[in-house]
Amino acid sequence: MGTLSYTATVSIDGFAADSDGDFQWSAPDDEVFAFHVERMGPISTEILGRKTYLLMRYWEHEPADDPWGPLEKQFAQAWRDLRKVVVSTTLTDSDLGAPHTRLVPELDLAELRRIVDEEPGEVEIFGPTTAAVAIRAGLVTDFRFFIVPKLVGGGLRALPADARLDLQLVEQRAYGDTVYVHYRARR
C-alpha cells in the first residue's frame, strides 16, 4: 500500500502558473533540479493530467539538437522508470508513448484510492487540477512546495481555494532564492 503526495512549484502568492498559463518563471536552477532528481527515489508512480503528461513527454527521448547533461539524463531515466497513470478523456492509448503508462478517463476518489492501495511506495499526484479532488478529500499525506520569489497576481492556484488542511512542517531547505518546504497532513 502506497502513500499519496503532491509536489508543486509555486509563486509566493500561491500560483503554479500565471494568468496567461505561463510557468517558465518557475524553472529550477541546477541546485533545485539536482534535488528533484534525488527526491524521485521513493516515488513509484505518478498520476498526472493530460497537459502535464504531454509536457513531461519531453523526458522520454533525448533531443538530438540539445543533448542533456548528466543530471538531465539521470532525471529522464528516473522519469521513464516510473509507472504513470494519465487522466484524460481526450487522449487514447495510442497517444501514450512511454512504457508503464496507462490511461484512465476519470479520477474519482474510488479510482484514486485503488491506485494508491495497489502501488508500492509513494504515489505522487502531479498538477494542481488533477490533484484538487485528492486534496479536498484529505487523501494527500505529503505536500512538497518549491516556492519561488515571484508574485504573478493570478492564474492557476497550486491549492484549491476551498481546501481545508492542517499540516505539520517536516522539512525545509533554501536553494538560493527558492525555498523548499515539505508538510505532512495531521491525521
Automatic annotation (TrEMBL):
Domain called Bacterial bifunctional deaminase-reductase C-terminal: residue spans: 5-179
Range of residues in the leader sequence: none
Pfam families with a match to the protein in the record: RibD_C
InterPro entries assigned: DHFR-like_dom_sf (IPR024072), RibDG_C (IPR002734)
Annotated protein name in UniProt: Dihydrofolate reductase family protein
Species of the source: Gordonia phosphorivorans
Taxonomic lineage of the native organism: Bacteria, Bacillati, Actinomycetota, Actinomycetes, Mycobacteriales
